[in-house]
Design a protein that fits this description.
Chain A has 306 residues and is of the alpha/beta class. In chain A, 36% of the residues lie in helices and 26% in strands. Chain B contains nine helices and no strands. Chain B starts with a helix and ends with a helix. Classes of the chains: A alpha/beta (306), B mainly alpha (254).
């Protein structure tokens, strides 16, 4: 087991009746990373998280957290994990502070941690209100405070921005960046909001039908889909013929322009080629694939193969 | 072992805080108060009363009637409700997924629930004793012909009270397992109410001294088996608690 990895799973599998579940997952989450865990609904993200938190027992495979094995008989590794699984789990009849106090007593955290995490999630002013009077966003922030109470080295967050307004999402994003930058916390972030993950993640795992389709950095994922160059010109037909004759892959983009894979020549070379052949170029723009399009391409490719 | 005991101490400490402002806590006073109030009203407005020349005998008659109602009906219903409410605290907002992801042995959470249920049962039973004394004092002044006078037989009352708690252990262990195993409040309450109602018939049959919900009644029944009831309850509760804790510790949370 590799201690430089916050999470390491080998052949992790859990099958439910009907064949759903996860199959042979080999996760490798580097310490200090913000690992975006992406997948369509039903891909097995929550099952994976429940396995990582020892809420489910695997049918096969092993889990290690910072090099320490984790299973039902060996739960000490959970001490380094703070988690928020799906919707917040809170005691509505207790105040926000009392909710934190319950968990503080369970994990044995020092008393000042309660006020510290309340300040961190900006709930200090509402700490003595009953949680049943909290808005969804406040509940979400309190759940995050609960996850942070034990000063975890690893945060496991399942759809953490559900219920947050745009300002709340921005604050949450800033908080995640602060936690990783200042405290070196590793974040395992499952979300269906792809642009949300794109903005904070350093590493990605893409899951579909219980199988890990991709794992690596954002840059590595982008390399799987080469950047394209968008060309607006006065004579698309001649431009396409010129570029094809020069060995380029050219696609019509549907708006009267062209889309060219830039694997072989750089933009300046393509521009010179077109101008020398008498094509008037009005615009050249690089068209980086968004995470969403890469993600969809990856999962659809799997569907096609199946 | 000491780490496990420390974990149990933590879960117990947390359980104490979770009980704040709960119906479970209020019911431990309300339920015995209802039983004593009914018995006081029955004797206060009824045509018959103990009417003994011996105040201690009058106390025992009054307390005996209260204990009978408690053991036969209210204590099983109280255990049913309290177990369902204690489990419901965790089922309501799917708290188990938060609790069981903490680095504590799963069994410590279950045993804390068991301790909380026992504490509530014991607290309600002790409140029942105090309320019997208060009810008797009210009757002594409102109905002097009841024969109640002087101090109640505290030792007798406490022995009966603790005996009933001990005889109710098996019922409590089963009810806690049902309440935690199934997240539906309705299932837990229906199981407890069904078992209590079944006890009306089974308790009077030759199987009565085997039936967990009838064991507390065995302490008062004319042809009861009090020693057997206490032993069966203690041993049965130990077995059920061990099995249900094992089941809880290994179950998946889906």
């Amino acid at each position: 087991m590799n201690a430089s990895l916050a999470i390491e799973t080998r052949g992790l599998a859990r099958r439910f009746p009907g064949g759903h579940g996860v199959h042979g997952l080999d996760l490798a989450v580097p310490a200090g990373a913000v690992y975006g865990f992406l997948g369509p609904n039903g891909a097995g993200k929550t099952t994976t998280i429940r396995l990582l938190l020892s809420l489910l027992r695997p049918d096969a495979g092993t889990i290690a957290v910072f090099g320490r094995p984790l299973d039902r008989g060996n739960r000490a590794a959970l001490a380094g994990i703070g988690a928020l699984v799906e919707s917040p789990s809170l005691y509505g009849h207790l105040t926000g502070r009392e909710n934190l106090e319950v968990t503080r007593r369970l994990v044995g955290a020092p008393r000042p941690r309660v006020d510290a995490v309340l300040r961190l999630v900006e709930l200090a002013g509402d700490a003595d209100r009953l949680v049943r009077t909290y808005s969804l966003g406040m509940r979400q922030r309190l759940a995050l405070a609960l996850a942070l109470l034990g000063e975890p080295r690893l945060l496991v967050l399942d759809e953490p921005t559900n219920g947050l307004d745009p300002a709340g999402i921005q604050d949450f994003r800033a908080l995640l960046r602060r936690l990783t930058a200042e405290q070196g916390v590793t974040v395992f972030l499952s979300s269906h909001l792809l642009p949300e993950v794109e903005q904070v993640a350093t590493h990605l795992g893409v899951l579909d039908a219980g199988r890990l389709l991709f794992q690596g950095t954002l840059a590595e994922l982008r390399r799987r889909a080469p950047a394209r160059l968008h060309v607006d010109c006065d004579d698309p037909a001649r431009a396409a013929a010129t570029l094809r004759a020069a060995g380029e892959q050219v696609l019509a983009d549907g708006d009267g322009g062209l889309s060219v894979a830039v694997a072989q020549r750089r933009a300046a070379e393509l521009n010179r080629l077109l101008v020398e052949s008498g094509v008037g170029v009005s615009r050249l723009a690089s068209d980086d694939a968004s995470l969403e399009s890469l993600f969809l391409a990856l999962t659809r490719r799997e569907e096609t193969r199946a | 072992m000491s780490a496990f005991l420390r974990a149990c101490g933590r879960t117990l400490d947390a359980e104490r805080l979770k009980l704040r402002r709960t119906l479970a806590l209020r019911m431990s006073i309300v339920t015995p108060a209802v039983v004593v109030a009914l018995c006081v009203l029955q004797l206060g407005f009824g045509k018959t009363h103990p009417g003994s020349d011996d105040p201690q005998a009058a106390w025992r008659a009054f307390a005996g009637a209260s204990f009978a109602l408690w053991a036969f009906l209210m204590m099983p219903l109280f255990v049913t409700l309290e177990a369902a409410l204690l489990a419901g605290i965790e089922h309501a907002d799917r708290q188990w997924k938060h609790l069981l992801a903490l680095p504590l042995p799963r069994a410590a959470h279950y045993l804390a629930k068991w301790a909380a249920l026992l504490a509530l049962l014991l607290g309600a039973s002790l409140a029942f004793v105090v309320l019997i004394a208060f009810g008797g004092w009210v009757l002594a002044h409102a109905q002097p012909q009841s024969g109640l006078a002087g101090w109640p037989p505290w030792t007798w009352l406490l022995r009966r009270c603790l005996g009933m708690v001990a005889a109710g252990l098996l019922m409590a262990a089963i009810q806690l397992w049902v309440s935690i195993r199934w997240s539906s409040f309705t299932v837990a309450v229906a199981a407890g109410m069904g078992a209590t109602v079944a006890g009306f018939m089974i308790g009077q049959s030759r199987f009565g001294h085997w039936y967990p919900w009838s064991l507390p009644v065995q302490l008062f029944a004319r042809h009861g088996h009090p020693t057997f009831a206490l032993a069966a309850s203690a041993l049965g509760a130990t077995l059920v608690l061990a099995l249900s804790t094992w089941d809880f510790a290994r179950r998946d949370l889906e």
